[in-house]
Structure formats: structure tokens, C-alpha cells
Design goal:
This protein is mainly alpha-helical and about 725 residues long. It contains 33 helices and 2 strands.
Length: about 725
């Protein structure tokens, strides 16, 4: 080709043309060498390897086939598998080249053609293949017969090859060319046959993959027949809820108990209450009972979690959870699983510590255990006393005294038994029994242990105080009542009334009496000018409360919002002033409300100021009750003397005879207390500069009207004067 002037000046084009010319020359030389059958010697090891591989391809293929035949004969290979007993080695030959079978005669080149091509199989060949498979399966039952037939076929083929090789040597080159063509046709037929077999085996494999395989090696958990119905009965929603709750409980700790409680409370509200109580309760008990040896911190976190969740979702959750806990406790006790029993006992103790139920239930459990007093009972009693013994003593000293006397009586019975068994002797001589008796003596003598330090778990207690956990306390629970399967309705609110179901007449009369009392209270509220439903409800709760705690819990359950809670203190003070004789019940209830919420304290202060304005027209009995009520609130430090700043004790216009008599009774009731209380009460207003006028007016009034009328209060007056000058605020 001629180059254009532009191409002649381009150096890259010239180099490109030279490379193409050299490549074409090499290609022609290579083709010429193939035609002439001449080969030049290679200059490198790579060329030598190619020459060896390509030059002796036919001979190496025959050698390989001969070696394969020998191995197949020795290994007894038939149709790509080892005949004889199946010892698992056939799995190693799956997918390998099946021409090691001596029934097939294919060389290396046919194998390459077979892997490169995949013609479509004919229907007749498929049928032949299936027919041959059936014959092979029938004949394969006897291993020895199969191997002998294979040997006979191999000998016949060898003789046929020898005859052909002998005949081919005496024939002319034309006959050799015809033989080559025949061989090529045979090779093609063999390739087509193998491809059809390959596709059939693929189809069989696909069918076998679609079919379910039942093998004993699959690791599936066995489910007993009586549990299969319950396992399949749970819906997908319940399973998903259980999985979410389990994941959150696995991450529960003291640091994140607030956030996890809120998340689980949201889950509880999103499902039916019965399912929520069941799922969450089961997961908590599974985490506590079936886990390893739990420590007190672990039980404390779960106890606080149950108390917090009861504050958020309702008391019914904690009641049902305690009932489930008692059932599992009895089951583990029957199994004598001490590890699980200790974990459940710790959880039960911390539920009591965090105010889920009262001490009555723990004392009932201790009495049940002390009746048997086995080794497991002793261990459980010891766990309870170590965890919450001092709190039990503080809540109900009388019940603790009865429990200690019962234990001592039971121990003396075992000791003085004339024909005691070996088990009784081992009980008394065990170190655990001795340690339990020492612990009981320490609790009896009010010796605190390090485990019961009240500073423990302060963070959890503060969090529960924010949630107002005082309103979830369950009262009147008994251990046997929790185990009763016939509990119906809101059994946790009915108290002891549910236990008297046998005596229907007694229950009916008691209900009728309560109804009559309620009607009387409603009429009394109307006579006391309780003109709204809210005031009537508060009046009935205060007047019908068994004690101040019962009234306090019922008032909290009213769940008043906004300014409605102000009515509580107004109704309470009104009821106190209406009594013929002063009743300290109202001051204790008012102190409890003030300590619970500061809003009640401010409401009480404004209510007293309103009452001070009405002193001139107030009856003497009401005035005396008001003076005693105010003095009691000052004495228990629910209020301070700053509540009197609305009164000017130096103004002769305001100090009428009724006012002087009222405040004189107030200070006399206060001076009747001990000196330390008088000092602390007046010290609370000593360091405040804005109360300077109040301090001077109180000194003038006490000196002029109290001490002058009763000289016995002179010593208390001196203490009061020093306390008012106590600017440092040092308490006595």
C-alpha cells in the first residue's frame, strides 16, 4: 500500500505498519510449517512444552485412556460409580468425568469436544438411555456378576482393537484416511451421547433438588406432641412482641432502666392488656429464674423495672406478675432447684423494697417456710432476711416478733424431740441453720448489716419517686391467695373479702352495710356543703379511709389534673375543724400529702391564711382545732413559722380577744413539746432577712400574752429567743 504524505510524516503510523507486517510474516511462516509438517526447534522451555504437548497429543491420550481403564478395572467402576458396598466414597466422584468406566471408549479430544459442545438430545437416545439404566439397575444387584461382565466386554474390545491395528498396517494410505474419518464419526457420536446423558443427569438433579430430602443429619429441635399445639397456637403478632420484649430485657441495666421501661410500656399499650401482661411477665421470669446465679443488683434492676412499669400501665400488671412469680416459685421449690429459687427470692424481696406490695406477703411466706424448716427453707429464709430483714422489722415490728418466736419454738421442738431422725440432727448441726439464727438475733437486736445499707439503689428509688410509686402498693395479699387458681376479677383490690366466698350471707350483709355507710357519707357531704362531685368524692375518701395510708392511696387514684388538687387540702381542713375533739388523723394525712407533692404544701398555706381571716367569726371549738392543727404541722416540720407572716402581732386593731386567744393556744401547744423541737422550729426563720418583722412581732406577742399568763414557759421562751438569733441555722 502506498502511504499518503500525511501518513509518511506520522512516526506512529510507520511503526504500526511495521508491526502489522511482522505479525503477518510470522503467521504465514507458522501456517507453512504446519502444511509441510516441519517444526523448528523452540528457543524456550515454554515452546518445548507446547511442542511436547501438541506433538504427542494422540499418544498421551491413548496412554491416559489405558491408565483409566486399568484403574476402573481395579476399582470396579461402573457408570461413574464404585460398585460394591456403599461406604460414602461415591460422593467424591459426583460431577467427575465418567469415562473412567471401561464400557466407554473416548479419547482426550472427545472429552474436550463434549465439554465445549452441548447439542440437543434426541427422544430416541433418551429412551435408549433410560432402557440401559433399567438393565443396569437390574444387573447391578449382584456386584460380582457386574464386574465379570465388565471384564468380558473389556477383553472383547481389546481383541477388536488388535485386529483393527493389524489390518491397518497392511492397508494403503487411502484406507488409513478412511479409518480416520470413521474414528471422527465415532467420536462425534460419542460426544452427542455423552451430552444427552449429561442433560438427563442435570434434569434428574433438578428434580431431586425440588423434592424434600429427609435426613437425620438436620439439626432440628424436637418438640413433644403435647407442646406442638401450644407452639403453633401463638400468632405472629405475639411472637414478634415477645421477640421485641426479650431484646429490650437483655439490655436492661440500672443506667438505661428508665428508657427501656418507657419502650416496653409503649409495647404494652399497643397490644391487648392480657397478652401484654402474659408476655412481659413470662420474659421477666425467664430472665430471672432460668439464668445463672443472679446477684442482688440484677434482681434490684428487675424489681425497679416492674414497679416503674406498674406506675405507667397500671397496678393490674404488678398483681398478675406477683401471682405468676408465686406459681413459678412453688414449681422450682418442688423441683428443689436452689439456684432458681434464690433468684426468684431476691426478685420477690426487691419488689417489696420498691413498694410493689406490703410486708404482709413476705411475712406470710416466711411463716410457710418456717413450718417445714428443711435445708431449702432455711436457705430461702436466710436470703430474705439478708436482703430485706431490717425493712421488714421497720414496717411491722409485731409481725417480726411473731416470726422470731415461731422460729425459736420450731427449733426447740426439733432439739427436744426424743427420737429424732438423722435428718433432724443434720439440720440443727448445719452451718446454714446457725447462720440463720445469728441473722435473726441481729435483726431482733437492730444490728444493721452492710448489705442493707439504705444508700443502695438511690438512683432507682429517686426515679420511682418521680413516677409516684407510692400509689401502686398492693395490700392484703396472702401467699395462698396468690396460688389460688380460682381468682376472679380484680382480686388484688378485694382484700380479704374474696376469701369469704363460702359464706355468701356474710358477704351479702357486709356489702349491704358498706352501701348504707356510703349513702350516709353522701348525705353527710351534702350537709357539709360539699357542692361539687369532686368535693364529695374527696370527703368520702377522707372520712371512709381505714387509716391515713389507705386514704392517701385513694386520693392519688383520683388522678386530679390542674387546679383540682387544691380541693384536697380545703376539704381536709374543713373536716378537721368540724370534729368535736381534735383528731390527729388529719395532720398525719396532711403531712403525707405535703411530703408527696409541694403543691399540697402551698395549698395548705393559702387555706390557713383564709381561716386566719375568719377567726373573728369562728366558733371556739373550730378555733381550738385550727390552733392544734397548725401547731402539729409546725412540730413535724411540714410547715414553718413563715405561715404566720400574714398576721401582724403588733397591731392592736387586729389583735382582738378571739385572735389573741387563738394564737396563744397555738404557741402553748408548741411550747409543750421538747426543747430540741422548739429550737429547730424557730431556727427555720432565723436566717431570713425578709422575716425580720415576723421575728420581732412573735417575740413581742409571746412575751406579752403567753409568758405573762403562764410563767412555766419562761425557759422555752429563752430557748425561742436564742433560736431566733441563730443566724447560722445550727439545729439541735
Amino acid at each position: 500500500m502506498r502511504m499518503t504524505p500525511a501518513q509518511a510524516q506520522d512516526p506512529f503510523y510507520i511503526v504500526k505498519e511495521e508491526i502489522q507486517d511482522s505479525l503477518q510474516k510470522k503467521k504465514k511462516a507458522r501456517l507453512g510449517r504446519h502444511k509441510d509438517g516441519q517444526r523448528t526447534k523452540s528457543n524456550s522451555k515454554f515452546h518445548e512444552f507446547l511442542e511436547m504437548d501438541m506433538g504427542r497429543g494422540a499418544t498421551t491420550a491413548e496412554e491416559d485412556l489405558e491408565l483409566e481403564r486399568r484403574l476402573a478395572k481395579k476399582l470396579k467402576v461402573k457408570k461413574g460409580k464404585l460398585t460394591g458396598p456403599d461406604d460414602g466414597i461415591n460422593t467424591l466422584f459426583e460431577g467427575l468425568f465418567s469415562e473412567i468406566d471401561p464400557d466407554h471408549e473416548m479419547d482426550y479430544e472427545s472429552h474436550l469436544l463434549m465439554t465445549a459442545e452441548s447439542p440437543v438430545p434426541d427422544k430416541k437416545k433418551k429412551q435408549k438411555r433410560k432402557h440401559s439404566k433399567l438393565h443396569a439397575e437390574e444387573g447391578g444387584t449382584d456386584d460380582e456378576a457386574g464386574t465379570s461382565n465388565a471384564d468380558k466386554k473389556e477383553k472383547q474390545k481389546r481383541k477388536h482393537n488388535k485386529v483393527q491395528s493389524g489390518g491397518n498396517t497392511n492397508e494403503e494410505p487411502n484406507s488409513s484416511e478412511d479409518g480416520k474419518k470413521k474414528k471422527q464419526k465415532k467420536m462425534k457420536k460419542a460426544v452427542e451421547k455423552e451430552t444427552t446423558e449429561g442433560e438427563e443427569t442435570k434434569q434428574e438433579n433438578d428434580i431431586s433438588e425440588d423434592k424434600p430430602v429427609l435426613s437425620s443429619s438436620v439439626n432440628t429441635k424436637y418438640v413433644p406432641p403435647h407442646l406442638r399445639a401450644t407452639a403453633n397456637a401463638e400468632s405472629e403478632e405475639v411472637t414478634q412482641t415477645r421477640r421485641r420484649v426479650r431484646g429490650l430485657l437483655n439490655r436492661l441495666s440500672e443506667a438505661n432502666v428508665e428508657s427501656i421501661t418507657e419502650e416496653i410500656a409503649a409495647i404494652f399499650r399497643s397490644v391487648p392488656r392480657s397478652i401484654g401482661c402474659q408476655v412481659i411477665g413470662e420474659e421477666i421470669l425467664a430472665s430471672c429464674a432460668r439464668g445463672p446465679r443472679g446477684n442482688e443488683q440484677y434482681a434490684a434492676v428487675f424489681g425497679a423495672f416492674v414497679a416503674g412499669l406498674a406506675c405507667l400501665v397500671g397496678v393490674d400488671f404488678s398483681a398478675k406478675f406477683v401471682a405468676s412469680l408465686s406459681k413459678i416459685f412453688e414449681d422450682e421449690y418442688s423441683k428443689e432447684d436452689s439456684l432458681s429459687l434464690r433468684n426468684l427470692t431476691l426478685l420477690l424481696c426487691y419488689l417489696f423494697i420498691f413498694g410493689v406490695f406490703s410486708s404482709e406477703l413476705i411475712y406470710d411466706l416466711l411463716n410457710e417456710l418456717s413450718k417445714r424448716l428443711t435445708e431449702l427453707d432455711v436457705a430461702t429464709i436466710l436470703t430474705v432476711l439478708q436482703c430485706c430483714g431490717m425493712k421488714l422489722r421497720g414496717d411491722d415490728p409485731t409481725s417480726m416478733k411473731d416470726f422470731v418466736l415461731g422460729i425459736q419454738h420450731r427449733v426447740n421442738e426439733i432439739k427436744t424431740r426424743p427420737c429424732g431422725s438423722q435428718d433432724d440432727k443434720s439440720k440443727m448441726n448445719s452451718k446454714r441453720m446457725e447462720f440463720m439464727l445469728d441473722t435473726i438475733c441481729d435483726i431482733k437486736n437492730n444490728k444493721k448489716r452492710t448489705k442493707e445499707d439504705p444508700t443502695h439503689h438511690t438512683r432507682l428509688k429517686k426515679w420511682l419517686q418521680k413516677l409516684r410509686a407510692d400509689g401502686i402498693l398492693l395490700r392484703g395479699l396472702k401467699w395462698q391467695k396468690l396460688l389460688d387458681p380460682d381468682k376472679k376479677g380484680q382480686w388484688w383490690l378485694s382484700g380479704d373479702l374474696a376469701e369469704s366466698s363460702e359464706n355468701v350471707d356474710f358477704v351479702a350483709t357486709k356489702i349491704s352495710i358498706e352501701v348504707l355507710e356510703t349513702q350516709k357519707l353522701v348525705q353527710l357531704a351534702a350537709s357539709q356543703r360539699m357542692n361539687t362531685d369532686l368535693r364529695r368524692a374527696i370527703f368520702c375518701i377522707i372520712m371512709s379511709g381505714e387509716d391515713y395510708l389507705d386514704a392517701f392511696e385513694k386520693l392519688l387514684r383520683l388522678d386530679l389534673s390542674g387546679k383540682q388538687d387544691r380541693e384536697i387540702m380545703r376539704v381536709l381542713v374543713h373536716c378537721c375543724l368540724q370534729e368535736k375533739m381534735f383528731n390527729k388523723y388529719y395532720t398525719v394525712l396532711a403531712s403525707k400529702l405535703c411530703s408527696h407533692d409541694k403543691n399540697h404544701k402551698f395549698s395548705l398555706q393559702y387555706c390557713l391564711w383564709d381561716q386566719f381571716k375568719e377567726l373573728e367569726s369562728m366558733e371556739l371549738n373550730r378555733s381550738m382545732n385550727l390552733a392544734k392543727f397548725t401547731a402539729e404541722m409546725l412540730a413535724n416540720f411540714s410547715l414553718s413559722l413563715a405561715v404566720l407572716k400574714s398576721v401582724d402581732f403588733t397591731d392592736p386593731v387586729q389583735l382582738t380577744a378571739k385572735r389573741i386567744m387563738h394564737f396563744r393556744m397555738l404557741f402553748e401547744f408548741l411550747f409543750e413539746r421538747e426543747e430540741s423541737l422548739v429550737w429547730n422550729a424557730f431556727t427555720r426563720i432565723a436566717g431570713l432577712p425578709e422575716l425580720e418583722l415576723l421575728r420581732s412581732s412573735i417575740l413581742f406577742f409571746v412575751k406579752q400574752y403567753v409568758v405573762a399568763a403562764n410563767k412555766s414557759f419562761t425557759g422555752k421562751f429563752k430557748i425561742m429567743r436564742k433560736a431566733l438569733d441563730n443566724v447560722a441555722g445550727v439545729l439541735m
